[in-house]
């Protein structure tokens, strides 16, 4: 593939960082494909049904038909550079969606004109709103039987409370869909055929559409004028407002999230994509428009500030760190300051990622998105900047994992591949953690949701060829203590030959929730020689990791070793390590241990008719309802619910609401598990609660 010669002299206002946002099946992949084709970056149109598209390059995405990774692709349209940041369509990948929404300046939301606004569209639309991402909408699939452009706009207005308004009108529909009328210029655009790259021409509006165009142009003009005082006056006085004035005001209104222009098209039949690209450059914000709001000076000569928003392992170049530069210039081969981690990092090569080639560049300027090779410790959400002008851009918070599952590799070589695979995968996804269970020898992976773990396991098997058996997802309970206690740990074996002698006295006390663990030594007078304190701590930590009550890690605990004894000959590190572990067990058993469980903050959005059922169902799940209020014309219920009760919720909420209610959840905090449930968990854990000697 030829290396694209890049025009490097793009002024900032000629850059657009956008996402194509859609729910599954609306046509995001096909639309992205067409955009890449029309912007000259792909030479052969990929066909999603054959699984050969550019953005969905992961095998697994092809199979599931969903997009999981956010790659960034650079393209060009009419003197503008458009960076397309891939946004996942699936709600379970909240971390992915959030991190991609943070770095894009505007979005094209793809709607399915043949089925109106579906529940998943509501979800992505709401997510975009949360980050005030200016949007234009593309009503796709106008060629499909039942396609209804105005109906789709109406449902966007009704269901989303969005100020969606027709920007153009379809000419013909279903099999006869052949073009669009631009309401501002009042010109018809007709495509001469269905095939990729079909020519199109501008022509006069046909007589049968004149009235319809008049009505909808009037609506659009009124809507635009309503956002601008000067235009409003002209409008009310019946004065002519010219197209330039209207476009200028519409740009301001779109950027302020006051209007969402809607365009008709059919990506599959190659119609309507080019006018949509024109709207991207005309109405969606440049980095300048957006960063002006945040107070960062988006100039190449300003000090560097940049955000790492995605780490991806590329089969050809290794680890890529996707970076959005907010101000200044990022240079290849230079050192940058990672202000989040407070370390210096060397940037190796910088790559602009095109659809099917990558281009090496020396510098990336404010407003640009690049992939860097060679950063070692920079993770998603870290800020890179100039050491003399440190700044921390608002980071992305990744909560502790709340769900885990066990993996057992089949053979020794699978074990090795597993280690490598998990290392790589956890680098890409900051909410994904790995640890190994010392006792069972199993590897435990943990994350934020069932689907996330499922996808990771899949990738591990396919991309890294690890054969392994995988357990059921488990809630990440933790153990903690509720009162102070003391315990004695004695490991003494003195029968013939060299013996073992380790002995310590421990005091434990509860720490506030979320505080983690502490360890301290208050041994005086040499009761235990100093070199044996670290082994005691090691024994304590190992026991804390293994758990005492039911095999879950012990947290929010302070351990103090305050006394003990030793033997000149028989004492050893190992003996004190065992003593530490025994001492902790004994103390914990006197400290009224409890289990604590992750409590999720669940937000359900539902049409009013299902509200009663949904609240009833939540109440049966030990939920605490925090609020229930109207948002637009939907009801939003916010509740705290134990994760253990949320298993299979995606399915049950669908059947309760005919697929119309949606939900998000995120881990909020840990709370004690009720007594009766604790008893069951302890019983099935195989932990007896006895102190092992
Ligand atoms: P995504 O899940 O949002 O990425 O959607 P895809 O681009 O994979 O499209 C889903 C399905 O709809 C595929 O079978 C496409 O061929 C089909 N499709 C996409 N756009 C159109 C369109 O404009 N018209 C018709 N008839 N089908 C389309």
TrEMBL record:
Coiled coil: none
Origin: domain of life: Bacteria
Listed GO MF terms: GTP binding; GTPase activity; translation elongation factor activity
Keyword ATP-binding applies: no
Keywords for this protein: Cytoplasm, Elongation factor, GTP-binding, Nucleotide-binding, Protein biosynthesis
Membrane-spanning residues: none
Annotated protein name in UniProt: Elongation factor G
Organism this protein belongs to: Candidatus Daviesbacteria bacterium GW2011_GWF2_38_6
């Amino acid at each position: 593939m030829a290396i694209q010669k890049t025009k490097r002299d793009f002024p900032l206002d000629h850059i657009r960082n956008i996402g194509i946002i859609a729910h599954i099946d609306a046509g995001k992949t096909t639309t992205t494909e067409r955009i890449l084709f029309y912007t000259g970056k792909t030479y052969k149109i990929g066909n999603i049904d054959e699984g050969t598209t550019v953005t969905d390059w992961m095998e697994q995405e092809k199979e599931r038909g969903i997009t999981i990774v956010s790659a960034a692709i650079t393209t060009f349209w009419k003197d503008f550079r458009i960076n397309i940041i891939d946004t996942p369509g699936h709600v379970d990948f909240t971390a992915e969606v959030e991190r991609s929404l943070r770095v894009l300046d505007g979005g094209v939301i793809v709607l399915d004109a043949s089925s109106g606004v579906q529940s998943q569209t509501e979800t992505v639309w709401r997510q975009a709103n949360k980050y005030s991402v200016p949007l234009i909408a593309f009503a796709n699939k106008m060629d499909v039987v039942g396609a209804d452009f105005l109906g789709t706009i109406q449902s966007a207005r009704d269901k989303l409370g969005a100020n969606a308004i027709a920007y153009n009108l379809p000419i013909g529909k279903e099999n006869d869909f052949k073009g669009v009328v631009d309401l501002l210029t009042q010109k018809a655009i007709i495509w001469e055929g269905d095939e990729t790259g079909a020519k199109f021409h501008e022509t006069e509006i046909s007589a049968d559409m004149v009235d319809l165009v008049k009505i909808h142009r009037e609506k659009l003009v009124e809507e635009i004028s309503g956002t601008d005082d000067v235009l409003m006056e002209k409008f009310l006085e019946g004065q002519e407002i010219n197209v330039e004035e209207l476009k200028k005001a519409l740009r301001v209104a779109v950027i302020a999230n006051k209007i969402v222009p809607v365009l008709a098209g059919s990506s599959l039949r190659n119609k309507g994509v080019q006018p949509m690209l024109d709207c991207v450059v005309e109405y969606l914000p440049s980095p300048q428009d957006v960063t002006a709001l945040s107070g960062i000076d988006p100039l190449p000569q300003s000090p560097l500030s940049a955000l790492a928003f995605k780490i991806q392992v590329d089969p050809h170049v290794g680890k890529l760190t996707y970076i959005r530069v907010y101000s200044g210039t990022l240079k290849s081969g230079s050192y940058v300051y990672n202000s989040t981690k407070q370390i210096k990092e060397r940037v190796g090569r910088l790559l602009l990622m095109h659809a099917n080639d990558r281009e090496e560049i020396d510098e990336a300027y404010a407003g640009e998105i690049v992939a860097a090779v060679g950063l070692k410790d920079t993770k998603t959400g870290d800020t890179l900047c100039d050491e003399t002008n440190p700044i921390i851009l608002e980071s992305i918070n990744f909560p502790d994992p709340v769900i885990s599952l066990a993996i057992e590799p089949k053979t020794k070589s699978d074990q090795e591949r597993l280690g490598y695979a998990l290392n790589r995968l956890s680098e890409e996804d900051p909410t994904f953690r790995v640890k190994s269970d010392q006792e069972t020898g199993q590897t435990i992976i943990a994350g934020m949701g069932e689907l996330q773990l499922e996808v990771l396991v899949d990738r591990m098997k396919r991309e890294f060829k690890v054969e392994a058996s995988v357990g059921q997802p488990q809630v990440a309970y933790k153990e903690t203590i509720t009162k102070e206690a003391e315990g004695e740990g004695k490991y003494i074996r003195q029968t013939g030959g060299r013996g073992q002698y380790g002995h310590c006295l421990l005091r434990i006390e509860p720490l506030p929730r979320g505080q983690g663990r502490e360890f301290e030594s208050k041994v005086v007078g040499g009761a235990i020689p100093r070199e044996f304190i670290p082994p005691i701590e090691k024994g304590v930590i190992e026991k804390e990791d293994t758990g005492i009550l039911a095999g879950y890690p012990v947290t929010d605990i302070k351990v103090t070793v305050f006394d003990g004894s030793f033997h000149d000959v028989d004492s050893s590190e190992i003996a004190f390590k065992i003593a530490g572990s025994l001492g902790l067990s004994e103390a914990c058993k006197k400290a009224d241990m409890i289990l604590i469980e992750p409590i999720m903050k669940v937000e359900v959005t539902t049409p009013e008719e299902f509200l009663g059922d949904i609240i009833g169902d939540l109440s049966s799940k030990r939920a605490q309802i925090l609020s229930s209020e109207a948002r637009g014309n939907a009801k939003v219920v916010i509740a705290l619910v134990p994760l253990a009760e949320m298993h299979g919720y995606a399915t049950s909420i669908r059947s309760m609401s005919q697929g119309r209610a949606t939900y998000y959840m995120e881990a909020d905090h840990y709370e004690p598990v009720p007594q009766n449930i604790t008893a069951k968990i302890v019983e099935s854990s195989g932990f007896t609660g006895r102190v092992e000697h």
